[in-house]
Amino acid sequence: xxxxxxxSELKLSFIADINPEQDLWNMRARxxxxxxxxxxxxxxxxxxxxxxxQAVLKQHLIPLFEHQLEEDNVVxxxxxxxxxxxxxxxxxxxxxxxxxxxxxxxxxAHGWEGVEYGFNFxxxxxxxxxxxxxLLTVDVCGVVIDSKPLxxxxxxxxxxxxxxxxxxxxxxxxxxxxxxxx
Length: 182
Prior knowledge:
Elements: H1 5-9, E1 25-36, E2 40-46, E3 52-58, H2 62-65, E4 74-84, E5 96-99, E6 105-108, H3 124-128, E7 142-147, E8 151-153, E9 160-162, E10 165-169, H4 172-181
Parallel strand pairs: 3-5
Antiparallel strand pairs: 1-2, 1-4, 2-3, 4-5, 4-6, 7-10, 8-9
């Protein structure tokens, strides 16, 4: 399944297979998105079957792994744990999330045969009508046509920020066909 010798020596699991009943899982995944907060690093991983899961690095582990978990990198992650995804910033509709330990290892992987990003495009009418409200994250094709200044609420350490902007709809099928013609 993997072209690297490290992957061929490990029993790799897919995201659909992992659960908290076992500890120290191994899998190959692509880093789809990564963002940092004050106390942790969150990222979204996708496996070769197109299933996504949220992963969290606590503050003390960020220096050990952050440089290896760049967006678009395909990595082999070993000896990680799985917990219930009940945090305040749940962005993937998956019952579990991945937790890193000091013993977790991350190394570059090769031989990716899955989808690259696993987009979940939602038409604007479904967003405006509220149909998409039940989804945690969506992808849209649009153009930012207006933005307001960044609003900052509260004081540190409970401060949060909000950016309001307007998007103009770009019909995904039209956008895709125009991109293919170029």
